[in-house]
Amino acid sequence: MAVGKKKISAPAYVKGHGIEAEDIKEGKVTHVEDHTDIRYQFTAGQAISKFLNGLKEGKILATKCNKCRRVMVPPRMFCELCYRPIDEWVELEDTGTVETFSISYIDPDARPLDEPEIVAVISIDGASPKMGILHKLGEIEPDSVYIGMKVKAVWKPPEEREGMITDILYWKPIEG
Amino acid sequence: MFERVRGLKFHKKQDVAIVGAGITLFRRRMNETGKELSYYAVKQALEEAGLEIQDIDMVVMGSAPDAFDGIHMKGEYLLDGAGGSNRPYMRVFVGGGTGVFAPIAGYWHVASGLADVCLVITEEKMSSSHPHPQSAFKYIWDPILDRPLNPNLIWIFALEMRRYMHENNIKHEDIALVSVKNKGNALDHPAAQVAEKITVEDVLNSEPMALPVRRLDVSPPSDGASALIMVAPHIARQLTDEPVWVDGVGWSLDTTWWTNRDLYFPRYVAEAARMAYKMAHITDPRKEIDVAEPYDPFDYKELHHMEGLGLAKKGEAPILTREGVTARDGDLPVCPSGGLLGVGNPIAATMGVKVAELYWQLAYRAGKRQVAKEVTTGVTQAWGDLMQVGTVMVLSNKR
Ligand SMILES: [Zn+2]
């Protein structure tokens, strides 16, 4: 190794050329454009298939581990903490509690939305504490939402359900 | 169950020193490829260390999702710019946690005795993907349970921030102070993308993204690269009088079922910190840590992570921030670099404002960014994947 004892006096400097989006649009910077096109068919798996089929029937299904006594939703075939198979399936209420929420003004591409939407983590009644799912809230003004609010699922009509998380349209506040 | 800290069966063969670092300009768009950016950062780190590429035994590359670059297996693509040709080379990747996980991988290469000189290079070019890098983040969500709801990446952070504010009774004003501090600190960083003097009001009045998150609560997407040279003690002694030592490393992942956790506390960071502190023989981090570079892609995240790192009690980080304790001239300077909020957020390349910054601070070579107090020990940390990984590193300048 070609080294000697070295006294370093200054931190490394900075290099690189920043450009603006306009520079690319106006063709000032050499670049190419490509559009990736890959399609996927995802397997829902053992546990989530049963969960999705439950949604089609208007039911929220969970699994239970008798060792740690957790009732888990979304359901899974094994308890990841005890690392053993689950013991049974249970049906939960279609009511729950808002654990946290956000008023979103942007879409998945970070483009502005015309109307903001309310997204929330909702813990489901009958599951272990904090066992929540991601979903949306409706029939409520953004200003009125609070953590701890009790909510109930609003389902699609049975004939329109497809066995998807969107078979629940949104969750609305329970009166009183 | 018995109480123990995981991951400490490992007995190191030799100590590990950092003797050089490099960082490129951070920008939303750069006129260089990822390979070219990597080359710049590596060259600077080699120059600072006084080494040539031929002196490098092994190379660790850290880079986050392939979807940004539109090149699958980009570790292979980046190899030549990363100085990885014809030597043992590996890529590590734990999302945003990569910025500290890549140097952890460099650490174990050297500590185990497999390598005496290891180059760690991290790169990210987020701007290739459009209309916005966010579009690439659509594909980190569960395809069956989450994606049909058309999620935006900001959602999970907004949900976590709200829960943190609720549980600890914290106002947005208290959180905005982090953005004000870090963007201000970044004015002294030559690589910075969004260094500016702003006020709490500016943050509170900025464009709503996913409330409570507003535009100025968020770090910007960036392109950039950074590099570190990690060496065995006998090499360090030949190279410099001011090596900085790795005292402890730790990493941990919480469950993928993120909606099944209480989001007010980052348990993955606390677990990782327990491992790193045990290794570094730190029992009271608030007293023993002189300077910290926790991961701050969002302003509340700096506070969240300070609490996960044990630098503040639960709910106490905003108070320390308000009282000026975390300012560059405070008792516990936090993100003196300017952090991701001020310097920019090229995911894995943030190693340059986390581990490299701590190295420069502890070597007293941070220039205008040098903290006011005397420093011997610092902690840095990164966070990523689906809100679940914590990576922690403790550095010091004493032996
Ligand atoms: Zn269990």
Topology (elements, then pairings):
The complex is a heterodimer of chains A (about 180) and B (about 400).
Chain A: H1 21-25, H2 45-56, E1 60-64, E2 71-72, E3 78-79, E4 84-85, E5 88-92, E6 95-106, E7 112-124, E8 132-137, E9 150-155, E10 168-173
Antiparallel strand pairs in A: 1-2, 1-5, 3-4, 6-7, 6-9, 7-8, 9-10
Chain B: E1 17-23, H1 34-49, E2 58-62, H2 66-69, H3 74-78, E3 89-92, H4 98-111, E4 117-125, H5 134-137, H6 153-168, H7 172-185, H8 200-205, E5 208-211, E6 213-214, E7 223-231, H9 233-239, E8 244-253, H10 267-279, H11 285-288, E9 291-293, H12 299-308, H13 317-322, H14 339-343, H15 355-362, E10 377-384, E11 389-396
Helix pairs in contact in B: 7-12
Bound molecules: zinc ion.
What's the short story on this structure?
Chain A is mainly beta.
Oligomer: heterodimer
The radius of gyration over CA of chain A amounts to 25 Å
Q: What is the CA-CA span between the terminal residues of chain B? A: 36 Å
Structural class of chain A: mainly beta
Main β-sheet description of chain A = 5 strands, antiparallel
Low-confidence stretches of chain A: none
Number of helices of chain B: 15
User: Mean pLDDT score of chain B, rounded?
Assistant: 94
The percentage helix of chain A is under 10%
Report the biggest beta sheet of chain B as strand number plus sense, adding barrel if it closes: 9 strands, mixed
Number of strands of chain B: 11
Q: Report the total helices of chain A.
A: 2
Low-confidence stretches of chain B: none
| Distance between the ends of chain A | 77 Å
Shape of chain B: globular
Most extensive protein-chain contact, per-chain counts = A-B, 64 and 77 residues
Mean pLDDT of chain A: 93
